[in-house]
Design goal:
It contains 5 helices and 2 strands. With about 90 residues, it is mainly alpha-helical. It starts with a helix and ends with a helix.
Length: about 90
């Protein structure tokens, strides 16, 4: 994973760097180093990060059959306001 992907994943999980480090059982320094591009995760941790990212996107998070995936409680940046409204309405039973 790239430094941007790691940081984006953390944001989508709504975690601070400290919380993310604790969740992954690594140090805060390690998370900062990944996000700054100084180091990359080892194979085991990278696999775990990819699994977490994969779990955030599931068929149950699709907006009314559109190509609008809700990720980690938020919408991807390319989502339209209409799509967000549609998803919110479907979640609220409207």
């Amino acid at each position: 994973m790239t430094q941007k992907q790691i940081k984006t994943l953390r944001y989508k999980l709504h975690m601070t760097q400290i919380e993310f480090a604790e969740h992954l059982e690594v140090s805060l320094h390690t998370v900062r180093s990944w996000e700054q591009g100084k180091y990359k995760p080892n194979e085991r941790t990278e696999y775990r990060l990819k699994q977490i990212a994969k779990e955030l996107i599931s068929p149950s998070t699709m907006c009314k059959g559109r190509n609008c995936t809700v990720v980690g409680g938020g919408f991807r940046e390319d989502h339209s306001v209409e799509c967000q409204k549609d998803h919110e309405d479907s979640c609220n039973g409207n």
